[in-house]
Amino acid sequence: SYVIGVAMAMELALVFFGYQFIKLWLFLAGFFAASATFFTFSPSWFHFESCCGEGTEGVRSLISLGLGVAVGLGALWVFRVGVFLVGACLGLILTFAMKSLLLRVLVIDLSTEGFGLIYVASA
To answer: In terms of pTM, does the model score above 0.70?
Structure first.
């Protein structure tokens, strides 16, 4: 079927160019998941005649597209925040490792200012 052919083409592109198109894949995944979920399940979840009644597939598809774009952009934002948080966590882990190493090897007492200097030096 056509869906399987498109999925196979996308998978081949992901295999060869995966990391270069990570933002595109994240947006498309969020877009398709949100739009398909809303379009499929909105008549059973929402009881509004203007968007989810009989013969309102056009309105429902427009709402699905808008929701898909919003969720796709949200997926990109979460990716950027996630990359920042991973970097911050790794910096804190490195800071604690350096502090414990300095306390055990040099047997010195680091004050709060020294802890901050270690964090800045490791970042």
So the answer is: no
